[in-house]
Write a structure and sequence with these properties.
about 25% strand; 5-stranded antiparallel β-sheet; alpha+beta
């Protein structure tokens, strides 16, 4: 699979009528949502979202414009929720073009980066604490040497 196809693998393109009913979907629908692309035309687009996200969908239709993505929680065929980016693009007199992108991998990478940042911060704090303690522990034995050196000079 080419790099471009790998990038596009998590993207679904859907054509919706003015009421938000699915007219057609790209073949990636099965891979991303678990639904056969042929099983969804005629059904409401809202069915692809988690139940708590459905009222927000009406607002999105009102705000639809190109190059604007909103994050939402999608719902796969097995009812498993997953993070999703949605862009709704109005098509004059034809409804909407919806672009859905599965953000599961991005969320995993974000959590891994957050964990690595937390571990690095903790390591820096441990290092600073160690150096402070060692500095304090080493100073008393060296005090006589430092004192004698000052008296010689």
């Amino acid at each position: 699979m080419t790099e471009r196809r790998q990038q596009d693998a998590g993207i679904v393109v859907a054509f919706l009528d003015a009421n938000g009913t699915i007219q057609s979907l790209s073949p990636a629908t099965g891979q991303v949502l678990g639904h056969a692309a042929s099983a969804l035309p005629g059904r409401p687009f809202a069915e692809l979202l988690a139940v708590d996200q459905r009222p927000t969908l009406q607002e999105w239709f009102g705000l639809a414009r190109p190059h604007h993505f909103a994050e939402a929680t999608g719902r796969r065929a097995n009812d498993q929720p997953f993070p999703l980016a949605i862009s709704l693009i109005p098509m004059p007199d034809q409804g909407f073009l919806a672009i859905l992108r599965d953000l599961s991998e991005q969320h995993i990478h974000r959590e891994e980066a957050r964990a690595a940042r937390t571990a690095a911060t903790q390591a820096l704090q441990d290092r600073a604490r160690f150096l402070a303690e060692m500095s304090h522990e080493l100073r008393p034995p060296f005090n006589p040497i430092i004192r004698d050196r000052k008296s010689v000079v």
